[in-house]
Specification:
Length: about 650
């Protein structure tokens, strides 16, 4: 029976000594020696064999009884598709052994450095089976060759090829494929006490190294926990959420039970963070995380993705009605007050829900769907939950297309500014205009501002558009001042323009353009229109910029009054100049006594606070008469004129009053 030996080693010196004895003894007996190893190990072997006079400086024997094969060169010869191939192995190595066995009278002793065979070259990558499994394949190929040809084999592995406890089964299998397992260290029963003491000291050192490794591993595990856990809330972070969602998808696939993903975004969190401070905002996020954990089972996952965004994964659902119940409970509970130190804070939540496998099959698609459904909850008024539908994906793709085309529209001059007249209700004269951006798409035709302004705000393109509208409006207003020295053109300023750059772009408006702050030529040529949401945020940078506008004499109008929070406190807090009654109150005014009462109340209240009133959406003479009699100062709507290109608006300025009392 042929020997198939395996040698485990820790250092190269021990390996080369054993290899030199194995090959050298064979050559001295007159046998054939074949060594398959790395170039560096072959060089060390040849130096050792040369010292015994068995090979020359080039590693060649005089009688041809020794053959060196470089593992770097052999590996590509028997690999196919990243795996050792038996047919190619027989051609590359088997034929060498066969010829040696047939031509040589004595024994053939082969050495194979297994890890070198499989790992020595960088241009031969292994398939997913891994280096261990590939080595097992080669060992089995050798065993088959030994049943056909007469040769002994010594294979060598470094112990660091099996570094973990999980490698023990593979280590055992390697051992079972060999007839003898040689010890990793030489042992001499007659060794001196000093030698044994040194061996014991070495074992103690190894034990100390192992304890150090265990301590280091614990530190690594602790660091991994910190990396995977959100430090503020103690919840799993985005990385863990992603991993667990993928695991839950696999479980759902095996069990056939659906799972639900809830994407939760807090409404008005930014306002609390800005007004009460980041520490209070952090307290709120912690309490939200605690409340969310009470709604789910231990098998479910609550995670914080970042900011005020949370997710809940409900896995293996036996009853999908559970999803609606959980979402409803979250919505109701998060609407209850939060005690944050000495402050009571109120928020709500917009929730998006998607289902596996109904809506999507991958973690990325599920997260995208839940995010889109959450934004639909925002658009529908917040403080609600919405299930994902395919139409949301279509709408998201349409928004993306509009966003991409809007970038080209800015560069290709597809945008234009139109001006809608605002008249003095007493005289019928045009006293103001609102600058409104219009988009004429070369293929789509006119694109409604309702469709592209929200997208521009979300992407930040509104900053570029807003600056461009401001420059155009100012240029036209200065031209029209030659006709009417009191005329003012109002420009809409989106909250996104302030938040995106903390008002930096708006500061440039004052720095880059000289405004007449009074004098003999009337007020500044432009005014600005803002929404209630901007005031509600009370961001210090925003408030500072509004104050700068006021100090420059620029008039500020509060747009769409009555549709938002309509907090009367900020009407006293901020020095506004105009209130604009939203068109929803003016619509059907002549047939709705309640709306008449509301408009009259707004007008009286505004006048008491020193504000003038502009009514939007005036479309009939009856509405005009009701508002004029109620004391409304200005009117805007199709009754007086639709938004017009600059030339058409200028023609109106030269004409007679639009209406006479």
């Amino acid at each position: 029976m042929n020997d198939h030996l395996v040698q485990f080693y820790e250092d190269d010196v021990f390996l080369i000594k054993g290899l030199s004895d194995y090959i050298g003894d064979a050559l001295e007996r007159g046998d054939k020696g074949i060594a398959i190893a790395t170039s560096s190990h072959l060089d060390m072997l040849h130096e050792s064999l040369g010292a015994r006079g068995l090979v020359d400086a080039q590693g060649r024997s005089r009688d041809g009884s020794y053959l060196a094969l470089h593992a770097d060169h052999m590996l590509p010869m028997f690999m196919e598709n990243g795996l050792p191939d038996e047919r190619r192995f027989r051609t590359a190595i088997g034929n060498v052994i066969r010829q040696a066995s047939e031509r040589h009278q004595g024994r053939v002793c082969v050495f194979g450095e297994m890890v070198a065979i499989l790992c020595a070259t960088s241009h031969c990558s292994l398939n997913a089976v891994g280096k261990h499994d590939a080595a097992i394949r080669v060992e089995r190929f050798f065993n088959k060759l030994q049943r056909q040809f007469d040769f002994d084999l010594l294979c060598a592995y470094p112990l660091n090829a099996f570094p973990a406890a999980a490698d023990a089964p593979m280590f055992d299998e390697v051992c079972t494929l060999h007839t003898h397992v040689l010890p990793a260290e030489s042992y001499d029963p007659a060794a001196s006490v000093q030698t044994l003491q040194r061996t014991i000291a070495a074992l103690q050192q190894q034990a100390y190294s192992l304890s150090t490794e265990v301590r280091d591993r614990r530190l690594i595990e602790q660091a991994l926990r910190e990396v995977n856990i959100d430090r503020l809330t103690g919840l799993p972070n985005r990385n863990v959420f992603q991993d667990r969602l993928e695991m839950d998808i696999k479980k759902a696939h095996r069990s056939g039970l659906p799972l639900a993903l809830l994407f939760i975004d807090l409404d008005h969190f930014k306002e609390i963070n800005d007004t009460l401070g980041h520490q209070v905002g952090d307290m709120l996020l912690k309490q939200v995380g605690q409340r969310l954990q009470t709604y789910v089972r231990e098998s479910d996952t609550v995670a914080r993705l970042g900011g005020d965004e949370f997710t809940i994964t409900l896995s293996e659902l036996h009853n999908i009605d559970t999803v609606t119940k959980v979402a409803q409970k979250i919505r109701n509970d998060l609407a209850k007050p939060f005690l944050l130190g000495n402050e009571l804070a109120y928020i709500s939540a917009s929730i998006g829900i998607t289902m596996y496998p109904r809506d999507a099959l991958t973690a990325g698609d599920l997260l995208r769907n839940a995010d889109q459904a959450m934004y639909q909850s925002k658009d529908n008024g917040r403080n609600r939950f919405t299930y994902f539908t395919a139409s949301m994906q279509e709408a998201a793709q349409a928004r993306m297309a509009i966003s991409n085309e809007l970038r080209r529209a800015i560069d290709d001059d597809q945008l234009a500014v139109h001006f809608q007249p605002i008249i003095d209700m007493a005289s019928g004269q045009i006293r103001k205009a609102e600058a409104l951006v219009r988009w004429l798409h070369p293929a789509r035709g006119p694109v409604s501002p309702v469709d592209f302004i929200p997208i521009a705000e979300h992407t930040g393109q509104i900053v570029t558009i807003g600056n461009w509208v401001f420059r155009k409006a100012l240029a036209h207003a200065r031209r029209w001042r030659r006709v009417d020295r009191q005329l003012t053109v109002n420009v809409n300023v989106s909250p996104a323009q302030f938040y995106h750059t903390n008002g930096e772009n708006c500061r440039h408006w004052l720095a880059d353009h000289s405004f007449d702050t009074g004098g003999g030529t009337g007020p500044p040529e432009v005014g600005i229109e803002i929404t209630e949401g901007l005031l509600l945020a009370s961001n210090s940078a925003v408030m500072k910029q509004l104050l700068a506008f006021q100090q420059a004499g620029i008039k500020i109008s509060l747009d769409d009054f009555g549709t938002g929070y309509s907090s009367l406190s900020y009407l006293r807090k901020f020095n506004l100049d105009y209130l604009k009654i939203d068109k929803s109150f003016v619509y059907n005014l002549e047939h709705d006594a309640a709306n008449v009462a509301l408009c009259e109340a707004i007008i009286v209240m505004a006048h008491k606070l020193g504000l003038e009133v502009i009514a939007e959406g005036v479309e009939t003479e009856q509405q005009y008469d009701i508002l004029r009699r109620a004391g409304c100062d200005y009117g805007q709507g199709f009754l007086f004129g639709e938004p017009l290109p600059p030339d058409a608006f200028e023609a109106l300025l030269h004409g007679p009053p639009l209406l006479t009392a």
